[in-house]
């Protein structure tokens, strides 16, 4: 914009397509009363979708202004970003099919885990940074920022059966948000330098595993 003002702006669009499949094999043997001879053997294969067929699309616009003020004694940076996020998934069936001794069943009963969904999240993020030079050897800085993260398809829709542990996602997860503040002080001398800061980070709705 000028010799002391710089403007950066941009637009990004990206999409992640997800299709996850696995097979789980179980062998069951029945023994006679002496536990030495196998009477019957049953082999079962479960076809599963640990994660559904899903799409995660993000459209974001961002801008940042960098300025030098008061004869370059104060450096000011202001940034902002806005995103529109769409998360779409198909019905999730588990198991998708069962093969019992080579006989395949493509319609196992009661296998719907998650119904198809189409979720939209809008997000904004921003930051302001100040760096003030008290003199050639002393700087004071301040930063404030806001962040946003929309939960991933894995966190929303996972269904992972590990036998003794089953991991479920949650389609109704709220986006994570955070607010960050930092006040810093810097001293530069010929024989030593010092950098220190006091900060606080406030985060809300962090996604984590809980027993259930």
Word description of this protein:
The chain is an all-beta fold and 212 residues long. The protein contains 1 helix and 15 strands, in the order βββββββββββαββββ. Strands 1-4-5-10-11-14-15 form a 7-stranded antiparallel sheet, with no helix packed on it. A 4-stranded antiparallel sheet has the order 2-3-7-8, with no helix packed on it. Strands 6-9 form a two-stranded antiparallel sheet. Strand 14 and strand 15 form a beta hairpin. The longest helix is centred in the last third of the chain and has 5 residues. It is elongated, with a radius of gyration of 28 Å. It starts with a strand and ends in an 8-residue tail after the last strand.
Give the CA-based shape.
elongated
Q: Give the percentage of residues in beta strands.
A: over 45%
Average pLDDT taken over every residue: 90
Q: Tell me the number of helical segments per DSSP (H or I, 4 or more residues long).
A: 1
How are the elements arranged and paired?
Layout: E1 5-18, E2 22-31, E3 38-48, E4 54-69, E5 74-89, E6 92-93, E7 97-100, E8 103-105, E9 112-114, E10 117-135, E11 138-149, H1 153-157, E12 159-161, E13 166-168, E14 176-188, E15 193-204
Key attributes of the depicted protein:
212 residues; mainly beta; 4-stranded antiparallel beta sheet; 1 helix; 15 strands; 67% strand; elongated
In a few lines, what is going on in this structure?
The chain is an all-beta fold and 212 residues long. Helices cover 2% and strands 67% of the residues.
């Amino acid at each position: 914009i000028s010799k002391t003002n710089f403007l950066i702006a941009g637009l990004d669009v990206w999409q992640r397509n997800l299709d996850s499949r696995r097979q789980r094999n179980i062998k069951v043997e029945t023994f006679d009363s002496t536990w030495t001879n196998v009477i019957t053997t049953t082999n079962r294969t479960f076809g599963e979708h640990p994660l559904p067929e899903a799409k995660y699309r993000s459209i974001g616009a961002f801008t940042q202004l960098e300025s030098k003020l008061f004869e370059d004694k104060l450096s000011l940076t202001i940034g902002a970003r806005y995103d529109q996020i769409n998360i779409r998934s198909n019905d999730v069936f588990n198991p998708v099919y069962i093969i019992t001794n080579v006989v395949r069943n493509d319609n196992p009963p009661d296998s719907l885990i998650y119904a198809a969904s189409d979720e939209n999240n809008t997000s904004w993020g921003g930051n302001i940074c100040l760096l003030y030079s008290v003199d050639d050897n002393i700087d004071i800085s301040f930063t404030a920022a806001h962040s946003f993260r929309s939960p991933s398809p894995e966190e929303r829709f996972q269904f992972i059966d590990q036998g003794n542990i089953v991991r479920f996602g949650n389609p109704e997860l709220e986006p994570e948000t955070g607010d960050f503040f930092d006040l810093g002080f810097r001293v530069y001398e010929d024989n030593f330098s010092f950098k220190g800061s006091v900060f606080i980070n406030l985060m809300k709705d962090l996604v984590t595993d809980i027993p259930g």
